[in-house]
Design a protein that fits this description.
CATH architecture of one domain: 6 Propeller
CATH superfamily of one domain: Kelch-type beta propeller
Pfam family, one: EGF_Teneurin
CATH topology of one domain: Neuraminidase
Main location: membrane
Largest sheet: 6 strands, antiparallel
Protein name: Attractin-like protein 1
Strand order of the largest sheet: 2-1-78-85-80-83
Radius of gyration: 50 Å
Strand content: 25-35%
Subcellular location: Membrane
Oligomer: single chain
CATH class of one domain: Mainly Beta
Keywords: Disulfide bond, EGF-like domain, Glycoprotein, Kelch repeat, Laminin EGF-like domain, Membrane, Repeat, Signal, Transmembrane, Transmembrane helix
Length: about 1150
């Protein structure tokens, strides 16, 4: 900022302020302030000193080899650091070993921060699990007693990789591992050996060699039926472990026959036909052979794999996120995700002939099915109704797709997105009584963002109308729902919706069990009797058969292949009141007199929430409020609200959806120029993907996606890391040091053998590069030069040899740093892995530049450019002139007779110039450092015909005042004589005042002459103005009199004869008074009349001597009603005469 003050000697003195852009204050902060900041190390002098195997500015990166028989793996104390990348390789020294992993603490961000566990030595080994979410955390009451996850790696090695993005963090991981001898064959592959080489059997197996089937749960009040592997409970007990008394609704965890033949899966599809639950597709962690089509026989609790008939077509490929319905004896499978892309394929499978058929879509009026995944399909009569989902063309698909199973035609309809937002991973059930579809939850797309939904909405497929129902209060997606009577039962799903700004305590893998009453429009939490702590999951399916809900599969770090079932109590089967009351203690049955029915604890006997409260809960949206089933109205005021009935007086009542303001559509089809941000899925390269603001790139999946679509693309942790900026950070080829290389789990370092740290980062694992070398292959690396878990001792980036194995002796090639990893001061470039450093090119205006980019930090004010090569006029209203190249200066051109104030910081030089304009007046130059330390100054002059000459050199200021005579210097000529001031060696912040004064000397005689001349001139002007005013006023008055005389002259003349009575004679008869002449006023409201008036005489009636006795008079006559007058005032009919106060003239 500078302040400019006018000091010109004149009558007026003024000041004003101008602002210019200041250089930013840059201060480098320390990496740490205490040991807690360093996640796996300690803090010294603001720097983190990391433990062995750890590195990074906060010790957040690691790659550790563990070969002890047991130990603990942890990411450090407290919350893990954001953007953490850590790898551990557990390797057994013994052959035929099994590695056991027990998770004592699991607390990460759901879906985004993942721990990958591989059964082997690299990321290409079989994937055992992908762990995320808060499952067990002693610091959180809800999860302090969570399940202890257990996994085994039977290859003798386990590779673990933990990835955290840069946002939300949790308390991290604590894993206890142990290595035991692999005796799985001796234990019939149903257990492992302990330290004494004895078999420790898995759940559901027993015997010395784990060869006897038993119940998966301990039978507490009964015995185990080994044929069915289910507990047979004693009388009065029920449940999977016979631990539930009475006949209340309860869960059973099945250990089904043939279950081992069925791979675990998630986001599959299930449908009921007869006694079978048919299952198709699904996501699995491994790419091993996968049985797409299987079925579960409910009565026998057994599984079987279904192979199509010999003459059948090949059938659909593996997919997940699809839908399946059963119609007659045929299964219809629609949509889903095949590897990276959604599809719109419709397949049918004849369960009697066991034949597949790809159904050809026949659109009506051009309709054809959209590509979607994560949708739902509901059968209504003979129509398959597909709701929402996520696809490439529309993102969150705001369409209802209907397929007529009889005609084979598709119809597509839009939805009122202001009532229901399009979603992914929601549930839908059909009520055949009310003929309504109930849609609940999912990841919903709104105008502001994409978020987990709590909304429940009903859809009438015949009328195509939507109604808002009561929200559940808990968001979730990829859950399951079935209809049991008038109750919708909802189980599981993912509810985590935390962000770095808003923490969430909701579970990633929920085992919540809730019921929604269609009758009461209310939600109720259900008891989890018999449900194991480890039953939480998402991506599962559920069907309902004979009042029992069957749940299959799902995901909780691993893909499940188990069956859970919930059987409700017998209350709704009881028909009489007495029996219902008898089951109150055992089943909590209640008789509902209004409906004459027996209801259980999961049912709603009568509403617990009033309609007014239900309406009030829909305050957030006019559309949902007015589309509610309760007839709510939306009231507009300062805080809008939804209520039952009419709004209070003075507030607008909106009682129908049509009256609500329409909101913008959230998902428009990508067309034209709008496609750039909506077509991330079409991009195939990282560089193109990251060039678009809304896209993000997953290198491990080679997929570009919209930033709001990460969860719908990778709900099971398929992406090992994403990037929105620099692509090289997620590629092996982009890593130039061994340490950077080891931040990526699929990369290893190939040393060149020079013992200077040179090498190449390559795709590989502990056994070497992934690509098999050939004679011409660039991926060859000798075994003794391959470093996957460790790095070579000497890491000097090719710029030095090492002493004491790992200390760089001397950094050559203009490099610096402990590992010669940066360019020395005054140089720039990428020194890593043999890179070159070049000298900074700053045109003499900087000694250093950015070590990577070469951008100079210019010393001089108003000098800018990457190389300090130009003058900067941005942000200033003054004129900047000069040439910054080759050490030239950029001058602020200052005007004469003004005092300027400049605040200078972060710069060490500043330059000014002034061109005197008068050739006969001296120039006074003043320079002062008002605040801050003194600086040095050079003062010089030049012109078009003279070279620059120095007037003062290295003058220390403080303060400098000097006058230069016009006789000694040619001011004001055509040659543009110029003073130049260059101030340098500025330290810190200073306030600088500078001025160039060129004004004549002040003379007292000239002052008085000028003063009196001005005074008398002003006095003369005032007198002249007064004379003119008087003359003009007289002129106006004369014209006014002339106009009056003309008016008087225009009046009519009259003659009158008078008969005067004798003195003393009184007139007895009153006569109207007659006027000689009458002239109306301008508004015709009155008249001016001229009358003859008899003057009063003497007592004897004679006129005094010298008088005539009569005269003319004027009177104002108002036009009103006749008024009675006194005897001395005769009247004119129709008028009121008032005597004038002035007698104008007398007449003869």
């Amino acid at each position: 900022m500078f302040v400019l003050t006018c000091i010109r000697r004149s009558m007026l003195t003024f000041s004003f302020v101008l602002f210019v852009v200041l250089g930013c204050l840059v201060s480098l902060s320390n990496q740490c302030s205490n040991n807690k900041d360093c996640k796996n190390g300690y803090c010294t002098a603001g720097m983190c000193i990391c433990n062995p195997g750890w590195w990074g500015n906060l010790c957040q990166f690691c790659r550790l080899r563990l070969d002890q028989d047991s130990g603990i793996i942890t990411d450090g104390d407290g919350k893990y650091a954001s953007a953490s990348k850590c790898s551990w390789l557990i390797e057994s020294k013994k052959p035929n070993s099994t590695i056991h992993l027990n998770f004592e603490e699991v607390s990460t961000e759901c879906i985004w921060d993942n721990l990958y566990i591989y059964d082997g030595k690299s990321v290409e080994s079989p994937l055992i699990a992908v762990i995320s979410g808060v499952i067990r955390d002693a610091s959180k009451d809800r999860y302090s007693d969570g399940p202890v996850l257990k996994f085994e790696a039977k290859s003798g090695a386990a590779f673990l990789y933990f990835y955290s993005d840069k946002y939300y963090v949790e308390n991290g991981l604590r894993i206890r591992y142990s290595i035991t001898k692999d005796c799985s064959a001796r234990c019939n592959f149903h257990g492992h050996c302990d330290k004494n080489d004895l078999c420790v059997c898995d759940a559901g197996w027993t015997g010395s060699s784990c060869n006897i089937q038993t119940c998966i749960s301990e039978c507490m009040n009964g015995y185990c039926d080994n044929s069915t592997r289910l507990c047979v409970c004693d009388s009065g007990f029920t449940g999977a472990s016979c631990n539930i008394t009475g006949d209340k609704g309860h869960w059973i965890h099945h250990s089904s026959r043939g279950q081992d033949l069925i791979q675990g899966r998630a986001s599959h599809a299930s449908a009921i036909l007869g006694d079978y639950m048919w299952v198709f597709g699904g996501y699995s962690l491994n790419s091993e052979p996968f049985e797409n089509l299987v079925r579960y026989h409910i009565p026998s609790d057994s599984w079987e794999v279904i192979s199509p008939a010999v003459n059948s077509s090949k059938g659909p490929s593996r997919r997940y996120g699809h839908s399946m319905i059963a119609y007659n004896s045929t299964l219809y499978i629609f949509g889903g995700r095949i590897e990276k892309k959604a599809t719109n394929q419709l397949w049918s499978f004849d369960t009697e002939k066991l034949e597949w058929d790809l159904v050809k879509t026949r659109g009506l009026d051009g309709d054809s099915p959209l590509y979607v995944a994560g949708h739902t399909a509901t059968l209504v009569d003979s129509t398959m109704i597909v709701l929402f989902g996520f696809g490439p063309s529309r993102g969150y698909t705001d369409r209802v797709q209907e397929y007529d199973l009889e005609t084979g035609k598709w119809r597509i309809y839009s939805i009122p997105s202001d009532i229901i937002a399009p979603s992914f991973g929601h549930s839908s059930v059909y009520d055949p009584v009310q003929k309504l579809i109930y849609i609940y939850g999912g990841i919903a797309s709104t105008v502001k963002s994409d978020e987990l939904s709590t909304a429940l909405t009903s859809y009438d497929p015949k009328a195509r109308t939507w109604k808002a129902l009561k929200n559940s209060g808990v968001p979730r997606f990829l859950h399951s729902a079935v209809l049991l009577g008038d109750r919708m039962l909802v189980f599981g799903g993912s509810s985590h919706n935390g962000t770095s700004q808003k923490q969430s305590d909701l579970p990633c893998f929920s085992m919540d069990f809730v019921a929604y009453s269609l009758t009461c429009d209310e939600w109720k939490r259900m008891p989890n009797l018999g449900l194991l702590k480890s039953a939480g999951r998402y991506g599962h399916t559920a069907v309902q058969v004979n009042r029992t809900m069957y749940v299959f599969g799902g995901f909780q770090g691993v893909a499940f292949n188990d069956i859970l079932s919930f059987t409700s109590g017998p209350c709704d089967l009881i028909k009489d009141k007495g029996t219902c009351q008898m089951h109150f203690n055992s089943s909590e049955c209640i008789w509902n007199d209004s409906t004459s029915s027996c209801v259980g604890p999961e049912s709603c006997a009568q509403p617990m929430i009033t309609v007014e409260e239900k309406c009030s809960a829909m305050n957030g949206s006019c559309s949902r409020c007015t589309s509610s089933v309760h007839g709510c109205s939306y009231c507009k005021e300062h805080i809008a609200r939804c209520m039952k009935g009419k709004c209070p007086d003075g507030q607008e009542t909106i009682d129908s959806l049509a009256k609500c303001a329409k909101k913008p559509t959230t998902n428009n089809k990508c067309e034209g120029s709008n496609c750039k941000e909506k077509s991330c899925h079409k991009v195939t390269s990282c560089e193109e993907c990251t060039s678009t603001l809304s896209c993000m790139w997953c290198e491990s999946q080679k997929l570009c996606m919209d930033s709001n679509a990460y969860t719908v693309n990778f709900p099971f942790g398929q992406c090992r890391g994403w990037v929105q900026e620099t692509c090289s950070t997620v590629r092996c080829s982009g890593m130039k040091t061994c340490a950077d290389c080891h931040t990526l789990p699929g990369c290893g370092w190939c040393d060149d053998g020079s013992e200077t740290g040179l090498g190449q980062c390559m795709d590989g694992g502990d056994d070497g590069p992934f690509t098999k070398p050939t004679n011409s292959s660039s991926n060859q690396c000798l075994a003794n030069r391959w470093y996957f878990m460790e790095c070579p001792d000497c890491q000097c980036n090719g710029h030095s040899k090492c002493i004491n194995k790992n200390i760089c002796k001397k950094c050559d090639h203009q490099t610096d740093g402990p590992h010669c990893e940066v360019c020395a001061a005054g140089y720039f470039g990428d020194a890593k892995n043999g890179g070159k450093c070049e000298a900074c090119q700053c045109n003499g205006h900087a000694d250093t530049c950015d070590a990577k980019t070469g951008v100079c930090d210019c010393f001089d004010r108003w000098v800018t450019g990457d190389n300090c090569e130009r003058c900067d006029e941005r942000g200033t209203s003054t004129v900047i002139v000069g040439n910054a190249t080759n050490g030239g200066h950029c001058y602020n051109k200052l005007n004469s007779n003004f005092e300027y104030t400049f605040n200078v910081s972060n710069k060490t030089r500043i330059s000014f110039l002034n061109i005197p304009t008068k050739d006969d007046i001296d120039v006074e130059i003043s320079v002062r450092v008002k605040e801050g330390k003194s600086a040095l100054m050079n003062l010089s002059f030049s012109s078009d015909v003279r070279k620059e000459e120095t007037l003062a050199h290295s003058r220390k200021i403080g303060s400098y005042d000097q006058t230069f005579s016009y006789g000694a210097f040619p001011f004001g000529g055509r040659d543009k004589f110029t003073f130049k001031v260059h101030i340098y060696d500025i330290k810190g912040f200073i306030t600088l005042e500078i001025s160039f004064i060129q004004s004549p000397k002040f003379l007292i005689l000239n002052f008085f002459i000028t003063f009196f001349a001005c005074f008398f001139s002003l006095l003369f002007v005032v007198a002249l103005a007064w004379k003119i005013k008087v003359r003009y006023s007289n002129y106006v008055m004369a014209r006014h009199r002339h106009e009056e005389m003309k008016l008087m002259a225009s009046r009519p003349f009259a003659k009158v004869s008078l008969a005067l009575s004798e003195a003393g004679q009184l007139e007895t008869k009153k006569k109207p008074l007659s006027a000689i002449a009458i002239q109306p006023t301008e508004n015709h409201e009155a008249d001016v009349g001229v009358f003859m008036m008899r003057l009063p005489g003497s007592e004897n009636g004679f006129t005094p001597v010298g008088q005539m006795g009569v005269c003319c008079a004027t009177a104002l006559i108002t036009r009103g009603q006749v008024t009675t007058q006194g005897p001395n005032f005769p009247t004119i009919r129709g008028t009121i005469v008032k005597r004038s106060s002035m007698v104008r003239t007398c007449c003869m």
